[in-house]
Amino acid sequence: MLARRTLLAAGAAGLAAPLAASLSSPALAQAGAPVRFALDWALQGNHAMFALPDDRGVFRREGIALRMDRGFGSGDTTVKVASGAYDIGYTDVSTLVKFNAENPDKRLVSFYQVLDRTAAALITLKKSGITTPKGVAGKRLGAPEGEGSRMLFPAFSRVAGIEASGIRWTSMAANLRDTMLAQGQVDAVTGFLFTTYFNLVGLGTAESDIVAWPYAENGLDIYGSALVARAEWLERNPQVAAGFVRASVEGLKMLIAEPDAGMAALKKREALFDEALEKRRWGMTYERSILTPNVKAGGTGVLDSARAETLIRVNAEAYGVANPPKVADMFTDRFLPPAADRRIG
């Protein structure tokens, strides 16, 4: 468990960013402290851990009037929270390493680590003939340039014993990655497992043809997405932060117990939301990235300094960061409920 540490105050954020149409329950915007919350992407099954307690008044009970907006990628969410356009974001914690090193006056902190394991993965199809991670050597590998799973691939290749020097990378827009794999334009891709997997299913790929090696299950065991906020905001709003975590943990428990209700809560916010597919995506997220051995032992949000240090180190190496942040400056457990209240599974 990480030692608790008072967060240093950060300077006021500057860049303005427009707010999207709110995905929150209108009835709950009537009372409590207004909190602007940005997700990491368009609505997916795991986001129901925020939508369901929003609908059932849990955030309002905690004194929070939630405004929840969709995201446009973890990097974009990180920038928007740092700028002050949003108070809290749900984003891949790896994005904080480079950002905090370059913007110490707008430092962001993970205050509830939702995904105990990153969803980054190496993914291919049976027709590629690749049967082990080492088999990607000399092949065509695709991912958007600068995307997190691609940037972490060198670290993954070292622990997985992959000869990476002969790999030929193809860059593309994120929305084309899975199509290019399905069409055979690349032999494999890197990306979030539960995003690429179900995108391939949506493209008509048989699930039996999808082969994947999650980084975290194959030697690179680092954290995934988290609730993050500016350090100075957390210092000014400790009760709001703690209440937001309590509501989120309660929402996670609701979603585990009532996945259909969770999908219905998201369908209310997005008419094109595919409840059946997203329920399956949620199941994979829960089984592979949330209910890990660490969480079974210590409860959701449990922090381990060694794993946090590994995440910072591999990201610093990937992005060439010479002055990476310290663990205690980027992670805190001071807003978590007691471990007994965070037991799941």
TrEMBL record:
Cross-referenced Pfam families: NMT1
Pathway(s) per entry: Cofactor biosynthesis; thiamine diphosphate biosynthesis
Keywords assigned by UniProt, alphabetized: Iron, Metal-binding, Pyridoxal phosphate, Signal, Thiamine biosynthesis, Transferase
Catalytic activity: N(6)-(pyridoxal phosphate)-L-lysyl-[4-amino-5-hydroxymethyl-2-methylpyrimidine phosphate synthase] + L-histidyl-[4-amino-5-hydroxymethyl-2-methylpyrimidine phosphate synthase] + 2 Fe(3+) + 4 H2O = L-lysyl-[4-amino-5-hydroxymethyl-2-methylpyrimidine phosphate synthase] + (2S)-2-amino-5-hydroxy-4-oxopentanoyl-[4-amino-5-hydroxymethyl-2-methylpyrimidine phosphate synthase] + 4-amino-2-methyl-5-(phosphooxymethyl)pyrimidine + 3-oxopropanoate + 2 Fe(2+) + 2 H(+)
Residues of the SsuA/THI5-like domain: 45-261
Function: Responsible for the formation of the pyrimidine heterocycle in the thiamine biosynthesis pathway. Catalyzes the formation of hydroxymethylpyrimidine phosphate (HMP-P) from histidine and pyridoxal phosphate (PLP). The protein uses PLP and the active site histidine to form HMP-P, generating an inactive enzyme. The enzyme can only undergo a single turnover, which suggests it is a suicide enzyme.
Similarity-based family: Belongs to the NMT1/THI5 family.
Protein name in the entry: Thiamine pyrimidine synthase
Native species: Muricoccus nepalensis
